[in-house]
Design brief:
120 residues; 70% helix; Cytochrome Bc1 Complex, Chain D, domain 2; binds heme C
Amino acid sequence: MPLTNKHLLTVCFITVSALMATTSPALAGKISRTGSSAKVSPRGQMLALSCSGCHGPDGKSAGIIPSIYGKSTEYLETALREFKSGVRASTVMGRHAKGYSDEDIHLIAEYFGALGKKTR
Ligand code: HEC
């Protein structure tokens, strides 16, 4: 019995070490990526996730929907406000933009604006 437990512990230790070895570089990359952008709020980053379904990961669209990656904070904020108010014609963006406060729009625009600048 004690032998089995010891063996299990060893297996556990090896598994955890292996997991840590494989996940930490990826984790470190993620942390440094978000950590370097002190200006971007986590709330903006969270809200921006709702755009990925249509505009692609990081706003890089592979399909018919325009990419929003690489566009400036100012451009994105203006576009979203215009969609929200109806000044800019749209199929879905007007409906989508109406769900966000002006502050949310600012944070989302800031997130994508900073994202484009960082990796350009
Ligand atoms: C349901 C799919 C969908 C979602 C979700 C979505 N979009 Fe869009 N977006 C579109 C489509 C389609 C267009 C083209 C305009 C239209 O017909 O509504 C567009 C256009 C845009 C444009 C104009 C692009 C340009 O080149 O001028 C911006 C900016 C934009 N979206 C930002 C966002 C942001 C930011 C979010 C997340 C808060 C978002 N979109 C979420 C579908 C979507």
